[in-house]
Amino acid sequence: MQKTPAECTTMSDVRAEIDRLDNALMRLLAERWGYIDRAAEIKRPLKLKADIPARVAEVRENARRQASELGLDPDFYEGIWAQLIDHAIAHERKRLGEDE
């Protein structure tokens, strides 16, 4: 049964909840990746590039804002999102043949 942090009374409880969340995060990242693949499919006939700087800036700013709103370190989480974005752009470039 899912527990809140306050309901965890042992390290085993805490570890089980962290593992549960890690699993959920991986599933969300896999779902996000499906949208990255779909974006490349949509971009191809429109002749759009993988890297759209205005969108990159928007996504990074969203990460900063949401982190701040949740009491998290915006620099750290923007950095994570920067890595996600860079990886997605590299993948889209390959799918779009931009690296050829």
Structure in words:
The longest helix has 36 residues, at 11-46. Helix content is 76%, strand content 0%. The protein is mainly alpha-helical and 100 residues long. The chain contains 3 helices and no strands. The protein is elongated, with a radius of gyration of 17 Å. Helix 2 packs antiparallel against helix 3 (74-96).
Shape: elongated
Radius of gyration: 17 Å
Q: Number of helical runs?
A: 3
| Percentage beta strand | under 5%
User: How would you state the average pLDDT, rounded?
Assistant: 97
Q: What low-confidence regions span 5 or more consecutive residues with pLDDT below 50?
A: none
Order of helices and strands: HHH
Structural class, by secondary structure, is: mainly alpha
Distance between the first and last residues' Cα = 50 Å
**Biggest sheet layout:** none
Which percent range fits the helix content? over 70%
- Structure summary, number of beta strands: 0
Topology:
Blueprint: H1 11-46, H2 53-69, H3 74-96
Structure characteristics:
100 residues, mainly alpha, 3 helices, 76% helix, 0% strand, elongated
Give a summary of the structure in a few sentences:
With 100 residues, this protein is mainly α. It is built from 3 helices and no strands.
